[in-house]
Amino acid sequence: MHNPTLLQFFHWYYPDGGQLWPEAAERAAWLADIGITSVWLPPCYKGESGACSPGYDAYDLFDLGEFDQKGARATKYGDKQQLLKAVEILRSHNLGVLLDVVLNHKMGADEKERIRVNRVNPDNRDEIDGEAIEAEAWTRFTFPARAGKYSRFIWDYKCFSGVDHIENPDENGIFKIINDYTDDGWSEQVDDELGNFDYLMGANIDFRNRAVAEELKYWARWIMNELPCTGFRLDAVKHIPAWFYKQWITHIEEVAPQPMFIVAEYWSHDVEKLLRYLHQVDHKTQLFDAPLQLNFHHASTRGADYDLRTIFNATLTERDPFHAVTLVANHDTQPLQSLEAPVEPWFKPLAYALILLREQGVPTVFYPDLFGARYQDDGDTGEQYTVEMPAVAELEALIRARQRYAHGAQTDYFDHVNCIAFSRSGTAEHPGCVVVLSNGDDGEKQVTLGAAFAGSAWHDYLGHRQEEVTLDESGGALFYCNAGSVSVWVKADTLEA
């Protein structure tokens, strides 16, 4: 495989019951065949919600579905043996494995502690009340069922900088913990939303405590030894000081048996913030292109009123493509989730063509877009909704096209509000393609590939257009697409049997 292609192999509402690890093993061969190169797995350790936890309520990083904790031995996705088997089979098909890592917070503490806290203005976290309150908080993590296996580290209030619930007095809110590390307030080098966005949820981990930082480095060494992973997806890094992630990634670079692919979730639509974060971590990670995902959302809801020429404006793909991981959707943007910004079904083939067939960025495919999903949940009003996410009919073909045809120099034809195109020249070893898409009426684009292509016949790989296009003596022709659709034109003699 020449073009890296990630698959987010889960979604927020994936069913409970330990089905995911076996499914990953079962689908591994097919995924490798269509052109997926790495599989991004969800958090594989025990969350506060036990067998119902999607994994972002991190409880015990060392419990991979091995210990009877939080009401279950297995996680939502299966037990440790099933996880090990799935990773083994994925790797046997030369698929990389990215592990999702939540280091921002812990939830589901085993014991309460008597601590002192300051109330914090939730709308401006820099406003910290000077009055110290004595209260109880769930801040002590002892992991009694694991009983010191793999790590004997005990987490207590000195490991955290804040909580969102106290008892005696009983209050919900945001409370800064008073300990040896918090005199200066929240950590620096985090997002400036709400003044300082260090605190997100649960017991907020404080990396200024060196023992905490070393424990998380130790965990990285342990997990890489336990599972033959090839990279990490880092959760919620806008809430974690950049200096710590730089330190953590540097440690991984030093001890990993092979170069690791690391992508971080800094969910901001301000590309300047993404660029600043990359600078702060010495460009040691890639970032998801959240601004591009938002552009896809807007394009899908505005139809022909959206200027397709601007689809990459103010995105990471435009500003720093070497550090951009592109996506159409993820578990946070899917309907009824916290960062909901769904891309309408009609536009998804266009969006995927724009990330899979271009040279910029590393594309990520979302599980429901490949396999479909159906789920129910409450909306903001409390009303229950049923959500259908049908599989994108063209997606398998687009993934295959990425490996077969997305090669060579790229030329853009972004010269019309509603119809744009780009070509890939191909190489000596691999053919290229011409991609035409429209968010309005039927589209056409004059594309010239050069005299070397004179007289060649081209077909739409997706089958949306049935005609054959023949290039003139200069290697040019009109290429077409249907209204609100995309076509991928390839040389007829390169079509797969």
Question: Which key phrases capture this entry?
Answer:
497 residues, alpha/beta, TIM Barrel, Elongation Factor Tu (Ef-tu), domain 3, Immunoglobulin-like, 3 domains, 8-stranded parallel β-barrel, 6-stranded antiparallel β-sheet, 26 strands, 28% strand, elongated
How would you describe the overall organization of this protein?
The chain is 22% helix and 28% strand. It has 497 residues and is an alpha/beta fold. The protein folds into three domains: 6-103 and 211-401, Glycosidases (TIM Barrel, Alpha-Beta Barrel), CATH 3.20.20; 106-208, Elongation Factor Tu (Ef-tu), domain 3; 408-494, Immunoglobulin-like. An eight-stranded parallel β-barrel has the order 1-2-5-12-13-14-15-16. Strands 6-11-9-10-7-8 form a six-stranded antiparallel sheet, with no helix packed on it. A six-stranded antiparallel sheet has the order 19-20-21-26-23-24. Strand 13, helix 5 and strand 14 (286-288) form a beta-alpha-beta unit. Helix 1 (20-34) packs parallel to helix 2 (80-92), helix 3 packs parallel to helix 4 (242-255) and helix 8 runs parallel beside helix 10 (395-405). 50% of the residues are buried. The model has no long low-confidence stretch (mean pLDDT 96).
